[in-house]
UniProtKB/TrEMBL annotation:
Region of interest: Disordered: 1-29
Entry annotated with the keyword Signal: no
Residues in AB hydrolase-1 domain copies: 34-249
Source superkingdom: Bacteria
Basic and acidic residues: bias regions: 1-14
Keyword vocabulary terms for this entry: Hydrolase
SUPFAM superfamilies: alpha/beta-Hydrolases
Annotated protein name in UniProt: Hydrolase
Cleaved signal peptide residues: none
Molecular function terms from GO: hydrolase activity
Amino acid sequence: MKEKADPARDEHAAYPEVHASRRPRPDGERTQTLVFLHGGMTGNWSWHRQVEAFGDYRVLTPHLPGYGARRDEEWGGLDSAADDAAAFIADRVEAGRVHLVGIGLGGLVGLQVLARHPELVDTAFLSGVPAAAPAASARTGAAARLRIWGGEWFARMQAGAFGVLESAENDAVAPATARAVAEDVAAAVLPAGLEEFDGPVLLTAGAKEPQHIRKGLAPLEGRFGAAQVRIAPGLHHAWNLEEPLLFNAAVRRWAERREAHPRLGEPA
């Protein structure tokens, strides 16, 4: 696939958006593309353990609007973010469909991509998607987190805690972006058209995630023709960082074999 540089988006990024494959696939087939959409309280740097593990793939880790090198951009809503991500993918992938992975906010954006641009996606692996409205107590907690979310020190603390050596003030999220994203997440409505996506979808959540996220999995599963639901035992929301070996193995098994990893449990 031909690389298309985009200096305007990548010049000041604390973490790159495009990661070329570093080794051929074991089966000798053409290199495929994985796209990772980050959560609302992190940035694209949160996928660094996945970038390290998928050297036989071409990996895209786009900044969502208002994050990272795009901190000065306005958050325009979930549908706008999905169109933005789809344009990013289409501009960089000239052959074949991608394997889409999203967590939290990235999962919500991923749902919009599946509904609005299904032709781009082969398989989808979505985790911790807040598809059901949170309880009042959860909304109160989210409002409290907004008071610290997005500051430069907070971005550095998160990146350092998860072992990212290069963290910059560009990873901070503007307060206006934080508020707008939180409002969209709290009021998220499942997009129309999910039924039209006919590829395999794996919907996951950590067993220690908030109850409303786990409860939202079943109705979300019903919106797809070929979806499965699994729970990551003993893990929290950001289990791509908490337990990267399991997360990476689960993503690989789903992308390559369309099978849920056996360590992921059935929902209670």
